[in-house]
Design goal:
about 300 residues, alpha/beta, Rossmann fold, ProC C-terminal domain-like fold, about 10% strand, elongated, binds NADP nicotinamide-adenine-dinucleotide phosphate
Length: about 300
């Protein structure tokens, strides 16, 4: 019987990631001539598959990967899709790994790390887990070479952005290796302080949900104005895509771009005036601060 994936209808019906990369500038997984690092993944779910699919598609040899995934149907899927070794337990299977990617839910990190710890003290560690601090990871793995990443869900189609923080023991070569591992998921951006990852979480980590919320509102308005759901969806989505592409292509601030299309007394002016009267900008800033505070709290809980 074909195993039923639990994750791959996953994030809002995003189809299973097959290594399709939409970024044109993704480098090869490893530098030419160098032996590909042996990668260990603890957890073979959504995020691991997003990273792994891209790496394998970019030429990282499947025999230089081991995945630890205890849920047998998911293990079968990962094995079949990527041709990599998948083990049920993270013990000696991880011995000799150069980079270990931690991609389990934060709640199970301690349990997942305990059997791995005796085998991964010499490895570079990359965590994509929300909220687990690098101190906790260093203690649990016996390695000071820890990088924390806060990715976001567009990583699942190669269009994410991940904030990265490195502990002091992480070398420049380690950073480059981590960037190569994450390149298939989209962009990366380093921050200097670990605490900045709480702001990254609030901005880009949780950010896709804010965009979906705005799309929801635009589509609701479209329906109220008599457009069909399909028309509303297409118009709202294309507007987001076009406006963000325009903002990226331009040297000007979003504020300048906005004022350009807001002639006094016009339609956009009417909309922006209504948003200002309703305190929309203030509410968005407060929402992000709430997300940042929650990220800090979760870090305290998981670090305890
Ligand atoms: N997906 C995203 O876009 C995204 C964005 C930002 C951050 N993250 C973070 O990335 C992490 C992983 O998220 P995800 O979406 O990839 O989760 P996920 O799809 O649930 O994957 C986690 C995988 O780890 C497995 N696992 C559980 N216990 C394990 C153990 N002891 N040893 C090895 N594997 C074990 C799970 O199997 P079982 O189901 O059997 O437990 C599951 O297959 C989370 O911390 C999340 O916050 C994800």
């Amino acid at each position: 019987m074909t195993p039923v994936p639990r994750f791959h209808a996953g994030y809002g019906g995003v189809p299973a990631y097959t290594g399709r990369m939409t970024n044109s500038n993704i480098p090869a997984a490893d530098p030419p001539g160098a032996r590909a690092p042996l990668l260990g993944f603890v957890g073979g779910g959504n995020m691991a598959c997003a990273i792994l699919g891209g790496l394998v598609a970019a030429g990282h040899p499947a025999d230089r990967v081991v995945v630890v995934e205890p849920y047998a149907p998911q293990a079968d899927i990962v094995r079949a899709r990527f041709g990599v070794r998948v083990e049920a337990a993270g013990d000696a299977a991880l011995a000799g790994t150069d980079i270990v990617v931690w991609a389990v839910k934060p709640q199970v990190f301690r349990e997942a790390a305990a059997p791995c710890a005796p085998h991964v003290g010499g490895a570079l560690h990359l965590s994509v887990m929300a909220g687990i601090r690098s101190d906790t990871i260093a203690r649990a793995t016996g390695s000071e070479r820890v990088v924390r990443a806060m990715p976001n869900t567009p990583a699942l189609i190669g269009e994410g952005i991940a904030g990265l923080y490195a502990r002091a023991a992480v070398t420049a070569d380690d950073r480059a290796a981590i960037e190569r591992v994450l390149a298939p998921t989209g962009e990366t951006l380093w921050v200097a302080q670990e605490g900045d990852l709480d702001a990254v979480t609030a901005l880009s980590g949780s950010g896709p949900a804010y965009v979906f919320f705005f799309l929801e509102a635009m589509m609701q308005a479209a329906a109220d104005m008599g457009l069909s759901p399909e028309q509303g969806r297409r118009l709202a989505q294309a507007t987001f895509k076009g406006a963000t592409s325009l903002a990226r292509a331009s040297d000007e601030s979003p504020e300048t771009l906005r004022s350009r299309v807001t002639s006094k007394g016009g339609t956009t002016y009417a909309a922006i005036t209504a948003m200002e009267a309703a305190g929309v900008k203030r509410a968005i800033v407060a929402a992000l601060r709430a997300a940042q505070a929650r990220a800090r709290e979760l870090g305290d809980e998981f670090g305890a």
